[in-house]
Structure formats: structure tokens, C-alpha cells
Write a structure and sequence with these properties.
This protein is of the alpha+beta class. It has 6 domains: 86 residues, 3-Layer(aba) Sandwich (GIY-YIG endonuclease); 110 residues, no CATH class; 40 residues; 118 residues, Nucleotidyltransferase, domain 5 (2-Layer Sandwich); 198 residues, Nucleotidyltransferase, domain 5 (2-Layer Sandwich), CATH 3.30.420.340; 56 residues, 5' to 3' exonuclease, C-terminal subdomain (DNA polymerase, domain 1, Orthogonal Bundle). Helices cover 44% and strands 17% of the residues. It contains 22 helices and 18 strands. Strands 12, 13, 14, 15, 16, 17 and 18 form a 7-stranded mixed β-sheet that branches. The protein has a 5-stranded mixed β-sheet with strand order 9-8-7-10-11. Strands 2-1-3 form a 3-stranded antiparallel β-sheet. The longest helix is centred in the middle third of the chain and has 26 residues. It is globular, with a radius of gyration of 34 Å. Its main location: cytoplasm. This is UvrABC system protein C. InterPro entries: GIY-YIG_endonuc (IPR000305), GIY-YIG_endonuc_sf (IPR035901), GIY-YIG_UvrC_Cho (IPR047296), Hlx-hairpin-Hlx_DNA-bd_motif (IPR003583), RuvA_2-like (IPR010994), UVR_dom (IPR001943), UVR_dom_sf (IPR036876), UvrABC_protein_C (IPR050066). Belongs to the UvrC family.
Length: 654
């Protein structure tokens, strides 16, 4: 493993100018590309103490063997160069926005004599125009089915087209007037291309003009007493309007925008994009990405996404000779990066006109942004559920945990403890259980911390471990009065009276605590005190995702792509959710008013009135007796009792 000190540039040799840098491994392969306003400040941060670096950054700098940089004149040039290098080198430590599935598009083969319309998945090709992407292929086929009666363009493959030209008869679509049958010469190549151009114009958003033109022709045919032609045109207008209704109108001003939203955790992020053209949602796209470098916040994700996605769209449009714009007029994002003006200039160069990058704060655009955010969260949840439900992935996760922690067997039952409080007060804790990598919610438990609240998280963890395993010992140790059969049942965790398993009678194979070395050592001391030796123990520190073992001064670092780390993280997050839920429940039941419980004559209604009037316990403590006595339902004596209870060492102020 290379030592970053061996390739660190000499002091003072790194320029302070803006630029783009790249780290390479000892074989010369580029593994990371980044940009910075000040190259010296950014690069020096990579060569700080390894213990203080983010785990992914630490892995990158210890994998690299060389760093080099290029100075540029402006931030726009830095964006362009960074994108080009990422595209050229495909660095393993950069975030990669790859589709989690191949989205279908409607392809229009303008490079053929008789252009064809068809559903397509795959790389872009020159001379083909694309519309979409769509969420489902059936959405394209339904749209085509409606519009082919108005725009009877060719949809058949080259083989079918050639065969019907040879036999001199059109296919079924030609007989039912959903194809103009250029294969048998019903229309010329120029007439067929005109049909295709009208179809493309309609899909590009110029719908109103097309409908008005058909209505004008319908009225003209009616005036000329060509009622059959007028009826066909009437049906065509109806088909166009139904096709327009299938695309939800979300913005009334003909907005041309992309709306972007994210959902993320420490290791992965989900991205959703809604493509709005002409005020209607024309397409939707989503990704789930690995956060392979240190990009913990939404701002960094926005910057990386905008740079890579729209740079790629512009490149695809150039390769395919696509007439559509690769970049919309507006890009609506959840947060603006610090260098958003440079991003706007770069996007404007790609589009050929001004592009607005902004955060919607009100109105229809804000409502649409919230919808996209909900879709991102839903996609992320579904991704995690698919991953959690994969038996192979769960088996691999348990095996990785066994190997990393040096366990004798895979931890089929894992329990995790998390503590929740508000600035050290009103402390509660949770214990969640996973069996075979899946949550077993019937075994979840909640704890109200009694003795360890004053000692912080460490003492609270120790109390929960002590209470949980004392219960385990009590439920698996038979009484002296038990007969042999009952004693055997008790030892196996069965209640001899009911014949049902006892909840705390099964010890976990692995106990996980939310925290680092202090919490782990406290839990280990309690297990040793109780004489329990067959339960493995570890701690998961949230900030750096390090796994701590008792008695080990250094943490265990699991791979970022490790299924084992993913399972431990999901277990920790579930314990945190369960603890927070319990804490909020108790808080809603008046937990914050506990200091007022001892005031004689002060019931729940008047405690609630005090909190509602003053807003917090801090303001109640600062209030004088006269202020409290002025509230409805309070008298001077009750007010003095409240002040005396909150300030026991002082006399109540009259």
C-alpha cells in the first residue's frame, strides 16, 4: 500500500490558482479526478493525517502513487476539463451516474429513405432522433397507437418493409390506415418524410399549432360537404387531444426544464430527473449510485450530477446528430453549489443560449420539485428493499461480517443498541433484532434509561446491555424447584407454563452498539461482569463507518462496496429510527414538563398552559411569579410554588 508521503509534492510547488488534478496508481492508471479554486489548499488536504481523513478518501490516497494537476484560467474551463478527464479515464473513485436500468426511448431513423418509428434501448447512433426517455416501453407503444392514425408513419423493421414491397401488398397497419404504406408506393419518400416531420414536431411540444391546423382542415372539409373526410379529421383531433392528456400538464407557462432531486445515505444516493417540455412531463429517469468518493452532502451531488449528466447528453446529441436540445432552459435543483454561476456559463455553452440553474421556492415548480423528491425517496427505498431481500446478498453480508470480525460462525442473529436523548436529558434506548439478515420486529425492545442517564451514552449503553442480558440469564436459568423436564425447557428458552419461547431467552451471535471504542469497551465490561462469553461484540461509528472491536486500538475498515457493511449500517439505522420514534412519543406525552411534575396543585392542563404560553422550560425558569400568576387559572400561591420548584435555592419573587 503506497504511503502518501512518498509522492506528496514539495512544499510551495503547488500553485494557488484554480485547476484540475488527478491521482494515479503506481501503474499509471488514473483513479480520481477533481477540480479546485485553489489547487494548493485542496491538494494539501489530501496529505493531512490519515486518521483524520474520510475512509473513502483515505483509501484513495493510499491507493494512489502519483498526483498531477493542470492550471486553468476560469472555473468554466475547470468544469470542462474535469468532465473531459472523467470521461476519458473513467476513474474508479469518482461518482458514476449510470442508469439502474435501460430506459426506452422513441427512435426516429432520419438517416433512412423512409424513416421508421420504433421503441429503442441502447447507445445513441448518428442520424437517429430520439424522444424520451420514458419510464415504460408500453407508454411509448400507447402513444404510437394513438398518433399513428394522425401521422401514419412506418413502424416496421427493414425485413418486413422489404418483404411487403416484394409481394406488393401492405401489412395490416396499412389496411387499417395506421401506416401510409410507403413499401407499396402509396406515398412518395418526400410525402412520408413530411409525415414523420409532423410527428416529430408534435412530440417536440408544438401541439397547439397541429391541433389548430387539423381543426381548420376539418372545418374546410365540412364547408365543402366532404363529411367523411371531416369525420376522419375530427377523430384525428380527438386522438391528438387524448395523447396530450396522457402527459400530465404540470406547468401552465410552457416551461422547458429538468427537475432534479436526491435521496441518500452514507454509501449510496438515488437521483430522479423529470424532463418537462412545453409544460408537460415528457420523461423520467432515475439512478442509484455508489458514493465512491467523499461527497456527503447534496450540494456536492448536484455539482457532480449536472457536470456529468449534461456533458454526456451533449456528447450523445453530437454523436447521434440529434436536433433536440441536450440541455433545457432551466434546471431546478434542491440546493445550489457555490460555483453555480460557472456551472450556468458552462451549461449555456452546451446549449448555445442562457441556462438558469436555480432552486424553486414557491408555486407549481416547488410542488413539482417535492413530487420528484418523493419519487427519489421511493426509488431509494425500493432499491434498498431489493438489495435486502436478495438471499445471495444477505448470505454474502453475513459471511463478510464473520470474516472481518473473526467469528467462529456467521452471525445469524444480530442485535443492535442505540441511545437517543436531547442534550443528555430524557434518555431512551432501543434494541432491534435481525435474523438471517432481515428485521424481526416482534423482538424489538425499548428502554427508558434509569441509572446511566447522568453518565452519557457510554453509561446508557452499559445499562441497556446489563438489563438485556440479566433478563437473558434469568430466562435461561432454571429455579431450584423446577423438575428435570421443566429445567431442560428453561435452558432452551421455552416457558414451561405456556410452552412458548421467551423473548429474551435467545442470545445474539453478535451484539452491535452505535458508537466507537468507549461504547464497545463499556458493553464488553458488562458482558464480562455477567460471565457471558459466547456473544461477539462490535461497535459501528457513524461518522467514519468504522467497526470497533473490544480491546483493539484500531478499527476494522470494511470495503465501501461490502455487503457486510451495508447490513451493519442498515441495522444501525433501524435502531436509530426505533429509538427516535420512542423518544418523540415520550416527548409528545409531556416528557419535557417533568420538572413541573413535583409542583403541588399543578395538573397536566396547567403544565400544558405554561408550556404553551412561554414556549420552553428556559423561559418558564426566567419568568417571575407575577407573570405566571397573570395566566388564566393560576393564582399567586401556585405561581410562587412553580418558581420555588424551578429555583429551590431562592425565594419566590412576590
Amino acid at each position: 500500500m503506497p504511503d502518501p508521503a512518498t509522492y506528496r509534492p514539495a512544499p510551495g510547488t503547488i500553485p494557488e490558482a484554480p485547476g484540475v488534478y488527478r491521482f494515479s496508481d503506481p501503474t499509471g492508471r488514473v483513479i480520481y479526478v477533481g477540480k479546485a479554486k485553489s489547487l494548493r489548499q485542496r491538494l494539501n488536504s489530501y496529505f493531512a493525517d490519515l486518521a483524520g481523513l474520510h475512509p473513502r478518501t483515505r483509501q484513495m490516497v493510499t491507493t494512489a502513487g502519483h498526483v498531477e494537476w493542470t492550471v486553468v484560467g476560469t472555473e468554466v474551463e475547470a468544469l470542462q476539463l474535469e468532465y473531459n478527464w472523467i470521461k476519458e479515464y473513467d476513474p474508479r473513485f469518482n461518482v458514476r451516474y449510470r442508469d439502474d436500468k435501460t430506459y426506452p426511448v422513441l427512435a426516429m431513423t432520419l438517416n433512412e429513405e423512409f424513416p421508421r418509428l420504433h421503441v429503442y434501448r441502447g447507445p445513441r447512433r448518428r442520424g437517429v432522433r430520439y424522444f424520451g426517455p420514458y419510464a415504460h416501453a408500453w407508454a411509448i407503444r400507447e402513444t404510437l397507437d394513438l398518433l399513428l392514425r394522425v401521422f401514419p408513419a412506418r413502424t416496421c423493421s427493414a425485413g418486413v418493409f422489404k418483404r411487403h414491397g416484394q409481394i406488393g401488398r401492405p401489412c395490416l397497419l396499412g389496411y387499417i390506415d395506421k401506416c401510409s404504406a410507403p413499401c407499396v408506393g402509396r406515398v412518395t419518400a418526400e410525402e412520408h418524410r413530411g409525415i414523420v416531420d409532423d410527428f416529430a414536431e408534435f412530440l417536440s411540444g408544438r401541439t397547439d399549432r397541429m391541433v389548430r391546423e387539423l381543426e381548420r382542415r376539418m372545418q374546410q372539409a365540412s364547408e365543402e360537404l366532404e363529411f367523411e373526410k371531416a369525420a376522419r379529421l375530427r377523430d384525428d383531433v380527438g386522438a391528438l387531444k387524448r395523447a396530450m392528456e396522457r402527459q400530465a400538464v404540470v406547468l401552465g407557462d410552457g416551461t422547458d426544464a429538468d427537475v432534479v432531486a436526491f435521496a441518500q445515505d452514507e454509501l449510496e444516493a438515488a437521483v430522479q430527473v423529470f424532463h418537462v417540455r412545453g409544460g408537460r412531463v415528457r420523461g423520467q429517469r432515475g439512478w442509484v449510485i455508489d458514493k465512491t468518493d467523499e461527497t456527503p452532502d447534496t450540494v456536492a451531488l448536484v455539482e457532480r450530477f449536472v457536470t456529468q449528466f449534461y456533458g454526456e447528453q451533449a456528447a450523445l446529441a453530437d454523436q447521434a446528430d440529434d436536433a433536440s436540445q441536450p440541455v433545457p432552459k432551466e434546471i431546478l435543483v434542491p440546493e445550489l453549489p457555490p460555483e453555480h454561476e460557472a456551472l450556468q456559463d458552462w451549461l449555456g455553452d452546451l446549449r448555445g443560449s442562457r441556462v438558469s440553474l436555480r432552486v424553486p421556492h414557491r408555486g407549481d415548480k416547488r410542488a413539482l420539485a417535492e413530487t420528484v423528491e418523493r419519487n427519489a425517496k421511493e426509488a431509494f427505498t425500493q432499491h434498498k428493499l431489493r438489495r435486502a431481500g436478495d438471499l445471495t446478498a444477505r448470505s454474502a453480508a453475513l459471511q463478510e461480517i464473520q470474516d472481518a470480525l473473526g467469528l467462529d460462525q456467521a452471525p445469524l442473529r444480530i442485535e443492535c443498541i442505540d441511545v437517543s436523548h436531547v442534550q443528555g436529558t430524557n434518555v431512551v434506548a432501543s434494541l432491534v433484532v435481525f435474523e438471517d439478515g432481515l428485521a424481526k420486529k416482534s423482538d424489538y425492545r425499548r428502554f427508558e434509561i434509569r441509572e446511566g442517564a447522568e453518565g452519557g451514552d457510554v453509561a446508557s449503553v452499559a445499562e441497556v446491555v446489563r438489563r438485556r442480558f440479566r433478563r437473558y440469564l434469568s430466562e435461561t436459568t432454571p429455579d431450584e424447584a423446577d423438575d428435570a423436564e421443566s429445567a431442560a425447557k428453561v435452558r432452551t428458552g421455552i416457558d414451561p407454563t405456556t410452552g412458548r419461547p421467551r423473548k429474551f431467552a435467545y442470545a445474539p451471535n453478535l451484539l452491535v452498539v452505535d458508537g466507537g471504542q468507549p461504547q464497545v469497551e463499556a458493553a464488553a465490561d458488562v458482558l464480562a461482569e455477567l460471565g457471558i462469553q459466547d456473544v461477539a461484540l462490535c461497535g459501528l461509528a457513524k461518522r467514519l463507518e468504522e467497526v470497533w472491536l473490544p480491546g483493539d486500538p484500531d478499527p476494522v475498515i470494511l470495503s465501501r462496496t461490502s455487503e457486510g457493511l451495508y447490513l451493519l449500517q442498515r441495522l444501525r439505522d433501524e435502531a436509530h429510527r426505533f429509538a427516535i420514534t420512542y423518544h418523540r412519543q415520550r416527548r409528545s406525552q409531556g416528557m419535557v414538563a417533568s420538572e413541573l411534575d413535583a409542583v403541588p396543585g399543578l395538573g397536566p392542563a396547567r403544565r400544558q398552559a405554561l408550556l404553551k404560553h412561554f414556549g420552553s422550560m428556559k423561559k418558564i425558569r426566567a419568568a417571575e411569579a407575577s407573570e405566571i400568576a397573570g395566566l388564566p387559572g393560576f393564582g399567586q400561591r401556585t405561581a410562587e410554588a412553580v418558581v420555588a420548584a424551578l429555583h429551590p435555592s431562592t425565594e419566590a419573587t412576590p
